[in-house]
């Protein structure tokens, strides 16, 4: 079977869905690989490295995608590329399935079998394919570096001839994959770290990484959990949580916001009034900014100042660590491709929980219409 690796077309996207390493790995499984020219350039993987690994370079143009059996991408491919795919072609990538009405129409009419990696179940068997985790990990790490660089203070405690400097205090909202990596990174830099999450199970993980857990507010109604994910909290719960966080914010030097609820607007946890209570010179990095943000006033991809606090809209951070982000993404994708590769080409067994979980469109139909219409 023939697999095509696309060059990403979204502005600012530097990642690529395969590396020379995964090209070799997939070739060894009997696949043939086409790589679009310059696909890996922005991530530090040159065309000749893909060729040396055994891929065939293909030029962009009207025929791109024609006749291939599978397409691997980071973001959804351009409409012109999807138009070239023959029925039954496998497509795998981060397809932003929530509300993706136009994309779904096209995938259905082309009868593409699309695997949306956002929907991959978070089960042990799928861990090697879990791009949400590999990329969130990078975002959490980079968020702390950005905050530290923008901060007007040292992060570690220092004892100098000029006296002692106290360690910076970090507050992390959300103890998922990004939040836990932010915690670990801030600890390595020497910060004292506080972490808030609505899932009580997060306490043990936070403490095992040397963080101090801020328990969710004592409310009768606590947001439910499903499959390890938080469900949307009520406005009353969020109000109680904001009240609880106000004192913490006043003491924080850096705040890393990672709180999210899949398919929903991110919970608003820091109001403008709460920002006014923070120390001028402190920094907030909002990784939830593309989902509406955890902090008032953050702007996607920009740094703005509010009440003397620097607000960094941390969108697309994995792409800013493009070489390693691609290396991990490509391995996740290679594991998924190997998983669905049968004796005779690709086989999508809908009884398999991994395929059942993330097979978004198949045979001209969308398998998760509620998620697209926003009714979930
Ligand atoms: P996510 O990006 O959806 O959310 C980040 C965090 O925000 C979550 O921990 C969530 O509980 C928290 N959150 C939501 N509302 C909040 C609020 N109002 N205040 C504070 N925090 C709030 O989560 P994720 O990083 O994708 O991880 C989701 C879960 O999946 C976690 O339990 C994680 O450990 C688990 N996981 C399992 C596997 C696996 O078993 N293969 C792999 C990865 C992650």
TrEMBL record:
Q: Which GO terms describe its biological process?
A: NADPH regeneration
Where the record annotates domain Alanine dehydrogenase/pyridine nucleotide transhydrogenase N-terminal, the positions are: 4-139
State the UniProt keywords alphabetically.
NAD, NADP, Nucleotide-binding, Translocase
| Presence of keyword NADP | yes
This enzyme's EC code(s): 7.1.1.1
Q: Which reaction does it catalyse?
A: NAD(+) + NADPH + H(+)(in) = NADH + NADP(+) + H(+)(out)
Which positions carry the signal peptide feature in this UniProt record? none
Q: Name one Pfam family in it.
A: AlaDh_PNT_N
Recorded hits in InterPro entries, A to Z, give: Ala_DH/PNT_CS2, AlaDH/PNT_N, AlaDH/PNT_NAD(H)-bd, NAD(P)-bd_dom_sf
Q: Gene Ontology terms, cellular component aspect?
A: plasma membrane
Question: Where does the record place the Alanine dehydrogenase/pyridine nucleotide transhydrogenase NAD(H)-binding domain?
Answer: 148-313
Q: Which domain of life, per UniProt?
A: Bacteria
Transferase listed as a keyword: no
What is the purpose of this protein?
The transhydrogenation between NADH and NADP is coupled to respiration and ATP hydrolysis and functions as a proton pump across the membrane.
Which family is annotated?
Belongs to the AlaDH/PNT family.
Name assigned to this protein: proton-translocating NAD(P)(+) transhydrogenase
Gene source species: Cyanobium usitatum str. Tous
